[in-house]
TrEMBL record:
It is a multi-pass membrane protein. It is found in: Cell membrane. The chain crosses the membrane at residues 6-31, 43-62, 119-142, 148-169, 190-211. This is UPF0056 membrane protein. Coiled coil: none annotated.
Length: 213
């Protein structure tokens, strides 16, 4: 039981660094700047739900994706490590990773021509929060979990991230007032540092497994 608790904390911490919901606060406020409190809470709820559904779906079908494309867990670990490392380098500069979202996407969905559901799903949930890095991570950890409790721990960490995303987005106004843009950039850099170590370790594990080291 203690091992699974540690595993949960490890997974949750890693997913928190990758999804970086605090770093998404400025974008969330930007695309919802003309909406009321209740509408913002509704978007936050739908965004969190979309994040959970997306990550759980990829976590569950990840093994079949490996088999279909003839890829291995080790090859995926190396490729995923490279992707996470790129994200981490951009986060260390204090910016939102371009692997997640582009400036054009942010501007396009900042207007009034889209519905609340569209804003919640794209660009907030996908690809801003549950982007390629988060999808890669849950697929990899699910593939490496060989027993039911281990796989359940991965799902539990995704659910916990969904709750965290909802809480952060619902409190986005207060978070920005307290941290300010400088504080959010500092938090993003901290998450980038954690993500860098995760990416390097992921590549090391993949190389060791591929070459039987």
């Amino acid at each position: 039981m203690l091992w699974y608790l540690k595993y949960f904390v490890l997974l949750y911490g890693g997913l928190f660094a990758i999804t970086n919901p605090i770093g998404a606060v400025p974008v969330f406020l930007g695309v919802t700047h003309d909406l009321g409190r209740e509408e913002r809470r509704e978007i936050a709820r739908k965004t969190a739900l979309t994040v959970v559904v997306t990550l759980v779906l990829f976590a569950l079908v990840g093994e079949w994706i490996f088999e279909f494309f003839g890829s291995s867990v080790n090859a995926f670990a190396i490729a995923g490590g490279v992707l996470l490392f790129k994200m981490a380098m951009e986060m260390l500069s204090g910016s939102i990773s371009t692997v997640k979202i582009s400036r054009e996407e942010t501007e396009e969905f900042g207007g009034e021509a889209v519905t609340l559901e569209e804003v919640a799903i794209i660009p907030l949930a996908i690809p801003l929060i549950s982007g390629p890095g988060a999808i890669t991570t849950v697929m990899l950890y699910m593939a490496r979990s060989t027993d039911i409790p281990g796989k359940a721990t991965v799902i539990a960490s995704i659910l916990a991230i969904g709750v965290t995303v909802w809480l952060v987005l619902c409190s986005s106004g207060r978070i920005q007032r307290r941290l300010g843009r400088v504080g959010i950039k500092a938090m993003t850099r901290m998450m980038g540092l954690i993500l860098t170590s995760m990416a390097v370790q992921m590549m090391i594990n993949g190389i060791k497994g591929a070459f039987g080291l």
